[in-house]
């Protein structure tokens, strides 16, 4: 995969989270992820503290397979994008080393440029450049 293709992958990935059409979101998930692929989210600090208070040493939030990925993306879209307040955009720092792609993303107000959220993603790809695991670290 060339740098151009890496940027294209990242642009398509981030665009997915802004996509209003559920059918397009599902199709894009199937194009980007390997069957059985996973999205692993580092929970917000508040959630990690609450889990630690209950005796859990660690927490992760995971979605596996196309159906769970579709639910995860749809929930994010409904919470952040559908109300018309925010959109996501990729950072300009996508980099690939073998089968690993890393990049940052930002959440900004619609029509604005002020960053109000964001994070780091690390994608593990299979030999066909489909995502097998997507590690998301929001808040970075």
Backbone structural class? alpha+beta
Radius of gyration: 15 Å
CATH architecture descriptor name = Roll
Largest sheet: 7 strands, mixed
Q: Percent of residues in helical segments?
A: 25-40%
Provide mean pLDDT, rounded. Answer: 93
Unreliable runs: none
**CATH topology tier name:** Nuclear Transport Factor 2, Chain: A
Topology, number of strands: 7
Total number of helices: 4
Strand content: 25-35%
Distance between the termini: 26 Å
What is the element string, with H for helices and E for strands? HHEHEHEEEEE
CATH class: Alpha Beta
Shape: globular
Into how many domains do the coordinates divide? 1
Describe the structure.
The structure is a single chain. The chain is an alpha+beta fold and 140 residues long. The protein has a single domain (3-138), classed as Nuclear Transport Factor 2, Chain: A, CATH 3.10.450.50. 38% of the residues lie in helices and 34% in strands. The chain is built from 4 helices and 7 strands. Strands 1, 2, 3, 4, 5, 6 and 7 form a 7-stranded mixed β-sheet that branches. Helix 1 (3-18) packs antiparallel against helix 2 (22-32) and helix 2 (22-32) crosses helix 4 (65-81). The longest helix has 17 residues, at 65-81. It is globular and about 45 Å long. It starts with a helix and ends with a strand. The mean pLDDT is 93.
